[in-house]
Amino acid sequence: MRTLATLIAIALTTGPAFAADPAHPAVVELYQSQGCSSCPPADLVLNALADRPDVLALSFAVTYWDQLGWKDTFGSPAFTTRQWDYAHAGGRGNVATPQVVINGRGVVTGNRRADIDAAIRRFDRGAGGPGIGGDGRAVTVGAGAGKGTLWLVRYDPRTIAVPIRAGENGGRTIPHRNIVRQLIALGPWTGTPARYALPAAPRGLATAVLLQAGKGGPIVAARRL
What's the order of all strands across the beta sheet hosting 148-156? Predict the structure, then answer.
């Protein structure tokens, strides 16, 4: 990472260790840009993590590199805002790429697989969150402690190779997996059972939901649908 030290704790870790499994996947969010020369190694790490059933690996393309010669083909201001939300919640005054956020609870640079694996263990959220169900048309969240927001994430599970024609990565072709294309707040959750209607999914995109406590706070529960 260019300006952020590796593995800074957000100090929100809770729950028993090592509980990640397909029903309670660890949420690994990579913040990257095609205009960042340090990002391709992190892209490859996330691409490999995408095969793990106990990990929900998501690639968010940010926009603050777009003015340096290459506009990211998947970039969205909403994803830049989400990274800043994490920074503010963790008391950090800057953002940088590549950066990986683990379960909304800690950050790591992201270009070394060993660092990501260690962070998944360190920032495990346990299996104690409310249950999440879904049938493609709606999502249900069960009862639990606390409150938060249910986020809908739509992402492309394919490997997409993007030729970069300018900027720091000009002349390279970068493969992406699990690129996030939509991030939608479905509504608040107050600790009581709730049901949320799902908008129709664009063709080819996979769907997941994240229950998150506070703005830039820890992930309480997550599920692929």
Answer: 8-9, 106-108, 99-102, 26-32, 55-61, 179-189, 148-156, 206-212, 219-224
Q: What are phi and psi of 122, to 5 degrees?
A: -65, -40
- Give the type of residue at 187: G
Residue type, 124: D
Least confident of 62-76, 122-136, 144-158, 185-199: 122-136
Tens of pLDDT, residues 49-104? 999 999 999 999 999 999 989 999 999 999 999 999 999 999 999 999 999 999 99
- Amino acid letter, 162: V
User: How far, in Å, are 38, 71, 132, 152, 212 from residue 225 at the CA level?
Assistant: 32, 31, 9, 10, 17
Task: Compute CA 104 distance to the chain's CA centroid, rounded to the nearest angstrom.
Answer: 8
